[in-house]
Design brief:
mainly alpha, 2 domains, 4 strands, membrane, transmembrane, DUF2306 domain-containing protein, transmembrane helix
Length: 265
């Protein structure tokens, strides 16, 4: 009989719920012309549906490589439930603010909006919190036939490095009353296609992106290295090199943003 693991299930179900909201939001975008920061108000929810769903799905997939004892633990289930609930609430707030025709981030126009933004900061912390839990457990877990050396190191490093880098950059960015722009107009119009990053000045969303997606990149690197190299030492070396490159890119793009230079002009 297949054992039920609550954490993986709640993360995956929450990810699917967020993705299921995309079609309705795309329809809303076509019929609602209102703007925030010179772009359609429904663009931000769409981005957060995808990024949050990817984060939750990553946690669910990597959790499957932990021991059954760890996966079935009450503490692990609570961590998963809290983070999934926080993710749904966070997205609901973003959608509600969009429906009101106002921004959800860096919005201090009223006391209510400022309170909502502060509340969202706590929610964001709860959403990424499981990354450090799963990451540390992966690093401490023994190598098995399923949890191969490169995947173990890539998953552990990706989640832990991604957690700390994201926490630091997001914390700094959220404290900026002027928003994520540095020496650039407060507009998302004319931004880099798909991402929306400013092309006229610095944008703190760039290093935030690279920091957060270490959580997906390094596990994939480790998985590929295990299968291509068939050598534990070589696979782990590749992961360490990829981690160093990822951290370097994050640091370089953070420096670039802080001095007011666009990622791509």
């Amino acid at each position: 009989m297949k054992r039920y693991f609550f954490a993986e299930s709640v993360w995956l179900q929450s990810a699917f719920l967020l993705l299921a909201a995309i079609p309705a939001t795309l329809i809303a975008q076509q019929f609602d012309p209102r703007m925030v920061n010179d772009i359609n108000i429904w663009i931000k929810p769409l981005k957060f549906y995808g990024s949050t769903a990817l984060h939750l799905a990553t946690l669910a997939v990597l959790a499957r490589f932990l021991s059954e004892k760890a996966r079935a633990g009450m503490g692990f289930s609570i961590v998963a439930a809290v983070s999934a609930f926080a993710a749904i609430v966070e997205i609901a707030i973003i959608v509600t603010q969009s429906a009101r025709g106002v921004g959800s981030h860096f919005n201090f126009s009223t006391e209510l909006d400022a309170l909502i933004y502060a509340f969202m900061g706590g929610g964001a912390l709860l959403i990424i919190m499981p990354a450090i839990v799963v990451g540390v457990w992966l690093l401490r877990a023994p190598v098995t036939e399923k949890l191969t050396p490169g995947l173990k190191l890539g998953g552990g490093l990706g989640l832990t490095l991604g957690f700390f880098l994201t926490l630091g950059i997001a914390g700094y960015m959220s404290a900026q009353s002027g928003g994520h722009w540095v020496d650039a107009s407060r507009t998302d119009a004319g931004g880099l296609p798909l991402f929306g990053w400013s092309r006229e000045g610095g944008d703190l969303r760039v290093p935030h992106f690279f920091a957060t997606h270490l959580m997906q990149a390094l596990p994939l690197v480790g998985y590929a290295a295990d299968r291509m190299l068939r050598n534990a030492v070589a696979a782990k070396r590749v992961v360490w090199i990829a981690a160093a490159i990822g951290v370097a890119i994050t640091a370089a793009t953070l420096t670039q943003a802080l001095v007011g230079k666009p990622f791509i002009g």
